[in-house]
Amino acid sequence: MHYAIPTLDRADHLRKDDDALEQMFNDSQTRFYPVYQGDSLIQPNEPVPVSVSICKPTNLDISRAIFLGLDNTTACFAFSCSEYTVEQLQHIIDQAPNDSKFVNLRTIGPLLNNHEGSILAYAKALTGWHDTINFCEHCGSSLTATGGGHVKKCPDSGCARLQFPRTDPAVIMLVERAATADSPALCLLGRNQNWPEGVFSTLAGFVEPGESLEHAVMREVYEESRIKTSNVRYLASQPWPFPRSIMLGFIATADSTDIQIDPHELEEAHWFSAEQLKDFGTWGDESDGPKLPRSDSIAHYLIHHWLDSV
């Protein structure tokens, strides 16, 4: 699954060790991943682009560096350069290989291998949190980073509250109808008006307070399409740093068939057979016909899982 990190050791115990963090921060072998306003530093090699790490910038303080973990034995840090001057930003680019540039991960992500993409997704998520969460939500004091960049603490002794990186749970689901004597097996896909022309995907939505994941699936499907569902089964999950979600993937069985879309959520929705889906293109290609979602998304995974099962 894209953006999962099976090979990076997050080394939580080292986040609490200030001496170890400083030693890794100053080690010449340590890799630093800069993020500029959410964009990642990429060297667009052919046929597969690679993410770029650099040596420690001279103006980077350890308090602004985020310890990602260990790649084998090599320490990895991320840092935000969103507020750098033009000269400081150019200095970062000059440290990178020729032709490297900052690129939106949404654009380049599907072309990266999973290891590269996963590190950049992790870096993007944490730097995004650092860029936006700077004040105590209780008393308004400026927060200070600790725990290797994974905790922010209120310095007011009367408050001293801690804040942690936030992840918003979202359910994403493929709704299926079993084959009958009159129809092959079908799945429900919809399209949002903001997507590229022709793209259809699985339905999705955020989990609300006080709600189980299964009920979130049933509620979201009904709100968007008026299809009633049951037999909700968990399949897989995917971190989705756009900006800070965890996508929880499910398969659900349709208990009704008549679609009535919510026009505020969907432009259209239809039942599709496996034979129809095999002729679809993919998000970003040049074809004029219908397309499946991005190849790096869990929606793409859910659809192909269903195709393999029917």
Rg calc: 22 Å
Main pleated-sheet profile:
7 strands, mixed
Number of strands: 18
Instruction: Write the element-wise H/E pattern from the N-terminal end onward.
Output: EHHEEEEEHEHHEEEEEEHEEEHEEH
Helical segment count: 8
- In CATH, what is the class of the largest domain? Alpha Beta
Mean of residue pLDDT values:
94
The CATH superfamily title of the largest domain: Nucleoside Triphosphate Pyrophosphohydrolase
Unreliable residue runs: none
Describe this structure in words.
- With 310 residues, the chain is an alpha+beta fold.
- The chain folds into 3 domains: 8-132; 135-165, no CATH class; 168-309, Alpha-Beta Complex (Nucleoside Triphosphate Pyrophosphohydrolase), CATH 3.90.79.10.
- The protein is built from 8 helices and 18 strands.
- The strands form 4 sheets. Strands 1, 2, 3, 4, 5, 6 and 7 form a 7-stranded mixed β-sheet that branches.
- Strand 3 (39-43) and strand 4 (50-51) form a beta hairpin.
- It is globular, with a radius of gyration of 22 Å.
Q: Quick recap of the structure?
A:
The chain has 3 domains: 8-132; 135-165, no CATH class; 168-309, Nucleoside Triphosphate Pyrophosphohydrolase. The chain has 8 helices and 18 strands. It has helices at 12-15, 18-25, 86-95, 105-108, 114-132, 213-225, 274-277, 298-309; strands at residues 8-9, 31-36, 39-43, 50-51, 65-71, 74-80, 101-104, 144-146, 151-153, 162-163, 168-177, 186-191, 203-206, 229-240, 245-254, 268-273, 281-282, 291-292.
